[in-house]
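To whoever is covering the structure queue this week,

Two jobs came back overnight. Logging them here so there's a record in the thread.

Job A:
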Amino acid sequence: MAERKPIRVLVVDDSALMRRLITSILSSDPEIEVVGAVNDPFAAREKIKELNPDVITLDVEMPRMDGIAFLEKIMSLRPMPVVMFSSLTREGADVTLRALELGAVDFLTKPDGALQIGLAERQAEIIAKVKAAARSRVRQMPLPSKPAVRCGPYPLERIIAIGASTGGVEAINHILRAMPADSPGIVITLHMPPKFTASFARRLDDVCAVKVKEAETGDVVLPGHAYIAPGHAHLRIKRSATHYVCIVDGNDRVNGHCPSVDTLFFSVAEKAGPEAIGVILTGMGRDGADGLLAMRKMGARTLGQDEASCVVYGMPKVAFQRGAVEAEIALSDMAGQIMALLSGEGRRKRAAAAQPHGISSNSRDAK
């Protein structure tokens, strides 16, 4: 058996200390080789030609050419996996979200306090994200389609729950931009730190037919609205008469994450049952698989993003393997399939979906 080649990484950062610390952290893993560390995009351009790295870590703020401008050139001329480093500020969040829209695989935030201590505490996360980037699929995302034609109103009991991680920014963007203004209420958990979720919600609200906001406790889940879990707490729903209400609380880590997709999905399974549609999108790890399985057992329709259209086929893969996913769908078709389920196309009887002693085998295509 041939020995696996190490992941070749180029570090691009104008701070000599950051270059040294990132290099040290990545080099501590035998599966990673840092082949170069440079201080600006012009030097990086030459190193990319010379060294042909598998992954680039890229600082957002650099002299001569900022990271976003350089990322645009990379993704247009030589698409490759890029992990961005950004600050934990609203401005940093806006820039990072732009980077993810341009094709960066993932991002890491710089510590607020002592740089060396902060990065050391996140060593495992930094290594994991670089490894995931090396395995990711870098491609031009499909252009968001126009919002679907209004075909509601839907009963207030109908609800759509979506979970995602790595690659989820653009996947959620793509789906929400295709949803009509009268779609059922949508609740979303995406693995993202505080401040970033608020910026993400604002950016989506500017371009979507549905209204998008960061969820707050007490928000009534209304048709034509989407609610994104804040980066510092879990999102759940509760039932109030014919409505659902958002509950935002708790900062414990579930499956290593806060907010957690499983936390949202379990609450939707309990409170909405067969009135729900669950969707699990691109991301590494297993968060969401158990919650989606609970949703399916309670009669919800469940969809997973297919491997070919995922940036990282991790969360959808685990969910599919556990029988939580009723059908795997390409990202470009996901919004249409959600609308088809809502309109009753190919609908099975809901009672048949709830099988307390097990569920039917899943498939690659919706029926």
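Job B:
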Amino acid sequence: MYRGRRFLPVKSISKILPKTSGARLIDDKFTLLTYNMLSPHYMWPQVYKYVPDAFKDWQFRHHLLQKEILDVYRADIMCLQELTSYDYHQYWKGIFRRDFHYGTKFIAKTPPTYWTKKVNDMDGVGIFYNLDKFEFLSSSGIYLNDLLGTFDLKEIEYLQNKNIQLTDGAGKPTEEKSLLEILKSRNQVGLFVSLKHKDTGTIFVVVNTHLYWKYDEVKITQCMVIMRKLSKIIKNLLIGEKGITYNKMKVVFAGDLNSARDSLVVKFLKGEKFELGNINIINPMRPYLNRCLFDDIPEDYYVHTCYSGKLKGIFDYIWYHDTDFELTKVLTGSDVSQELEDANQFGLPNEKHPSDHIPVLAEFQIL
């Protein structure tokens, strides 16, 4: 069913589930998927030389994406990246609402200065959620280059004075720019959807993003923007929802963070405190996010989540707090590495996998 990948139990759950008055067991589990779909407009010829033309074809890849997302995985919550505005509005939004009773939200990036294609060819991130399991409460999207009100004067001063050595596509140094200038020129986005789980009444915020692919200082600052915005969203939810307190609110954060497991971004999300310049950095959402999926599974379950030629690694994450959710099953990824080795292939996409990333799929129990 999963093309050789295994959906394996992570922990045995001994908890007895409560019953409703109708003697129906409460369904306190849900599945969540995060997946970078690889926009057709990022199929750079110089990067994907190793991919045969037939597997670069967008119609071929789209057909495989449809089978994967609609038929094979179809998680209760899906966080998709590199989804183009055109594809979302012309295909995914309609089919999910019409055929599967899913709600959908999407935010597109703004086109960069070099963009020569149509505006609706620009990609963004989307969140899809099963309306049979969840009640939609609210949503908002942010542009990660909108720094107004996010940083104080001391922090802005640091961003202005911190210079970053830029590099070209081959990694060669080009020029230096301030961190603030780089941040303002980037077009990454974040999406927040607040949901109420119908069976348990649990309210949580689902966050999806795709961080910039270079420069650790840029990625961690973008992540700070997301976490500070998330803090405000939770405060607003607490005001609007009766009987909800801080300790009852939960968060799931997913996406392509373009960051390895030993990166500053991962350390920041785990709540480690460190300094950038003379600024103490700590995640304001650390009470809601203390671990990622890879902390709770055996190391041999995944080798990479991205197989983009020379660029390989674990870049796609699902974050949560272990007092809010328990990871019960996960779709393994090491099988894909074995597939590529057996076939003597350099990377993805290929005849079986439509993206250079693989879907990360997990089942959680609400605690």
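Note for Job B: Confidence is low (pLDDT under 50) at residues 12-23.

Please reply-all if you pick these up so we don't duplicate work.
Q.
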